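Many introductory courses stop at the sequence. We go one step further.
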Amino acid sequence: MKSFQDTYQERVNRAAEAKQKALDLLKARPAVDEATLAARREAAAAREAAQAEKREARKAAQAAKAEAAAQVAEATAPPTEEERKAARDARYAARKNRK
């Protein structure tokens, strides 16, 4: 970059030259051979299979966690009317025995 006093046309020309240079470098790259391309596709398929397996394992773990939470919620259900009455009667009896 020469200086900030360049003309507009000089800046446009430098930009075009840089663009052409980048395009030439891109065109100069060797083409990907079929063996490398097949290896990349195989690796991508393996990676996708591993991710799918991981997703399934995560879903199974979440389902098991939800089932465990449901069992805990069921086990800690609020007491029924009969259970509350029995607990109340036990408290009354304990209080009566203390006197």
